[in-house]
Amino acid sequence: MGDLQLVIFDSDGVLVDSEVISNRVLARLLTAAGLPMTLAETRRDYQGLLLDEVVTVTQDRFGHHLPADFLERFQAERAEEFRRELKPVQGAAELVQRVQAAGVPVCVASQGKLAKTRLTLGLAGLDRLIPSDAVFSAYSVPRGKPHPDLFLYAAEQMGADPAGCVVVEDTPLGVTAAVAAGMRVFGFSADSDEAALRRAGAEILHSLDQLPALLGLDG
Questions:
Q1: Of 68, 114, 128, 131, whose CB has the highest number of CB atoms within 10 Å?
Q2: Distance in angstroms (rounded) separating the CA atoms of residues 112 and 195
Q3: Model pTM?
Q4: Which domains, ranges and CATH numbers included, belong to the chain?
């Protein structure tokens, strides 16, 4: 694909299998707070949002104030379940290694806080492949996804031109952000809405092991 300078991975749902865990905890706590929600509903309505946006969207939509400690409880219960259940996405470690073996740097750009992303990468055993200074958070920039700020920041910190970056995402919000940053973006559809990823501007990956060939790294 020309001058490939950097591959930027989203974390949740791309490298670590965290989306079901996170949204299950969210559905449970929203239900306990008087807003009955299913796992499917939380994934549909909240996946890809910043935590503060979850509270804002909920309160605006339902006119129902969540408990003051809602986010604190959510993060604590989510971390506990991560420690019990979290696994890497199938093929994630192999993909990162193949990209790096081709001489292309990688980094992670996540909507989550740095501490949470580093925790999940560590639990999945991926921190040995991706150093902590190559992990970036939307909390470090003025605007999170779907705005381009996070991806542009990651490229700048890694010394890459946006036009030479490839992004791997699993949400339409993330795809929109990558497109806005002027980057080529692949939508990982294994557990996401393929049509929505396409509409947002992604090329589709059905499995992570397809990426090296699509980037011309297998030759």
A1: 114
A2: 25
A3: 0.90
A4: 6-17+87-214 (3.40.50.1000), 19-85 (1.10.150.240)
